[in-house]
């Protein structure tokens, strides 16, 4: 990882306050939570090899050494508790824009956002976001935004090979990890005012998700039960509205969906 280049472009130009880099680290989010009181606003914790990364529901995020982008961004921001979801949807939208720009010169791609915080490339997961919040009772909250992006990893464990991919696997070439990070951070701060407009964030996010009308398997977080439903909408509060076979609608704020593709 060329940290000198990253610091020159991102720190010296005052986008980030600092970059804390580790060749190897268990988890950038775990480190950021542990040292949150010491880290300044706009600090970036970055590693070339995350050994114990986790996603939603504590699932492991398996990452090959020196092949992927794994980092956490510490951002102080004034959001009410009922607005926390905006940081998640904003971040995933910015990551979508980043990948869209990075891959614009390549041929056919199917890139879209999956509720609530994943990016799918040609129907396989290539990125995920994990959000933690500190100082919940303060006006200014400390958001720890963890991102894992599969960049140049060519092989995945057998148990996830059918549902995970990387930029390299889909576009048949290597990508410059530092370039992706620089583009993401630049876009993140250039568009930060969007966090004050929930209608805009959710409208843009939905325009890149193509989820309305999709048939999915939805697993409820509360009881783990799974059912086949159709996505009706994603509302401005981040809630997923689904319809069952009878047309009855239900709304959820957490759970897991698996998209059913028609052959």
Describe the structure.
The chain has 263 residues and is an alpha+beta fold. The chain has six helices and 14 strands. It folds into two domains: 3-207, Bira Bifunctional Protein, Domain 2 (BirA Bifunctional Protein, domain 2), CATH 3.30.930.10; 215-259, SH3 type barrels. It is 24% helix and 30% strand. The chain has a seven-stranded mixed beta sheet, with helices on both faces. A hairpin with a 6-residue loop joins strand 8 and strand 9 (141-149). Helix 1 (3-11) runs parallel beside helix 5, helix 3 (84-102) crosses helix 5 (177-190) and helix 3 (84-102) packs across helix 6 (198-207). The longest helix is centred in the middle third of the chain and has 19 residues, at 84-102.
CATH-assigned fold name of the largest domain? BirA Bifunctional Protein, domain 2
Distance between the termini: 41 Å
Q: Strand content of the residues, in percent? A: 25-35%
The Cα radius of gyration reads 18 Å
In short:
With 263 residues, this protein is of the alpha+beta class. The chain contains six helices and 14 strands.
Chain-wise SSE layout:
Elements: H1 3-11, E1 18-22, H2 28-34, E2 43-47, E3 53-54, E4 60-61, E5 69-77, H3 84-102, E6 111-114, E7 118-121, E8 124-134, E9 141-149, H4 167-171, H5 177-190, H6 198-207, E10 215-220, E11 226-234, E12 240-243, E13 249-252, E14 255-259
Parallel strand pairs: 1-2
Antiparallel strand pairs: 2-5, 3-4, 5-9, 6-7, 7-8, 8-9, 10-11, 10-14, 11-12, 12-13
């Amino acid at each position: 990882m060329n940290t000198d280049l990253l610091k020159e472009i991102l720190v010296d130009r005052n986008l980030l306050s600092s970059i804390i880099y580790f060749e190897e680290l268990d988890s950038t989010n775990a480190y950021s939570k542990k040292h949150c009181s010491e880290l300044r606003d706009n600090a970036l914790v970055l590693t070339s090899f995350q050994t114990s990364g986790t996603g939603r529901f504590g699932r492991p995020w398996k990452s090959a050494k020196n092949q992927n982008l794994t980092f956490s961004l510490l951002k102080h921001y004034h959001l009410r508790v009922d607005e926390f979801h905006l940081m998640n949807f904003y971040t995933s939208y910015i990551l979508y824009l980043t990948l869209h720009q990075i891959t614009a010169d390549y041929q056919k791609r199917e890139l879209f956002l999956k509720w609530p915080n994943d990016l799918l490339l040609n129907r396989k997961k290539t990125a995920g976001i994990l959000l933690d919040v500190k100082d919940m009772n303060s006006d200014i909250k400390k958001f720890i935004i963890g991102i894992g992006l599969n960049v140049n990893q060519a092989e995945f464990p057998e148990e996830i090979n059918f549902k995970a991919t990387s930029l390299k696997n889909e576009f048949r070439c290597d990508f410059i990890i530092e370039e992706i990070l620089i583009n993401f951070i630049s876009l993140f701060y250039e568009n930060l005012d969007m966090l004050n407009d929930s209608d805009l964030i959710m409208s843009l996010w939905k325009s890149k998700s193509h989820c309305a009308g999709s048939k999915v398997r939805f697993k409820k977080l509360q009881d783990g039960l799974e059912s086949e439903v159709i996505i009706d909408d994603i509302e401005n509060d981040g809630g997923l509205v689904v319809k069952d076979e009878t047309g009855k609608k239900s709304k959820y704020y957490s759970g897991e969906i698996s998209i059913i593709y028609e052959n």
